[in-house]
Each structure stands twice: as C-alpha cells, then as structure tokens.
Amino acid sequence: MATLSAKPRPRPRMKLDEHLPVDHRLSRTYRLSAALMGLFLLAFGILGLVHRIGFFDTGADTALGLNTNGALSVLSLVVGTVLVAAAVLGGNIASTVNMVLGLAFLVAGFTFLFALDSRFNFLNFRMQNVLFSFGVGLLLMTGGMYGRVSGNLPHDNPYWRSRHPH
Description:
This protein is mainly α. The chain is 57% helix and 2% strand. The radius of gyration is 21 Å and the shape is elongated.
C-alpha cells in the first residue's frame, strides 16, 4: 500500500513591519491617529504638571476633565512624546506603535478599573480615566490595524499578497 508522504508546504510568514511600503496611502491614517492622541496626552501631561500636583497625590485634581497626579502627568508626557515621534516617522513604525500602545491603554484601563478605591490606585484613576483609557486604546488599535487586518483586503494590499503568494 502506497502512502503519500508529501509534506504540506509551510505557509509564508508575514512580518507586519516589512511588507507594507513606507509611502503607502495608509500611512496617513497611522500618522493621524498617533498624532491626535499624542498631542492630547502632551496637553494633559503639561496641564497636570503646571498645576503642581503631588507626584502620587490621590486628591480630586483634574486636567482636561480627567483626574491626574504628577506620576500620571509624567507618564502622559512620555507616551504622548512616543506617539508624536511615531507620527513624525510614520509608516509601519506609526502603525506598530499605535497597536502596541493601544493594547497598553486597554490593559491599563482594566488594571485601574480593578484598582479603583484601593491603595494600588497610585495614578489617581477615576471612572472617567478608565473610560478614556478604553476609548484611546480602541482608537489607537483601530488606527494601527487599519488596512492590515480584514477579511476583505484588496488584492493589491501587501498583507493580502503575503497571505496568498500564488
């Protein structure tokens, strides 16, 4: 009895950063989502620092409608700077940074949702901060994945071509 011993061909692996051309039209989407969120976070961080709030203060101090303290203001400045830098660089870098930071915002939202009204709420989160974190996370992830993940990618999309090499 003859058996077929033909191995299935391995599927070509796609790396997210290498298949999309840097000058692709979707780069504008990646840049815009990173720039808008980055500028908002920079403004939030600056306003939080200008008010000279204690670094780990858990009072009712707000900036742009969100509770804050010195640590959250500094963290917002760092993340905002990373997003603006990604927007300036554009292309695949902006897309990847959007996806990674979007996931980080979602994780932070869930983490501080469980830490509300506890001693572990060192960033002075309140419910509006949690909802903001969820919203920003979803927007950043959507902006970063736009054109990369879909069931209806056009056939000229580099990600579609990578999945269908023949």
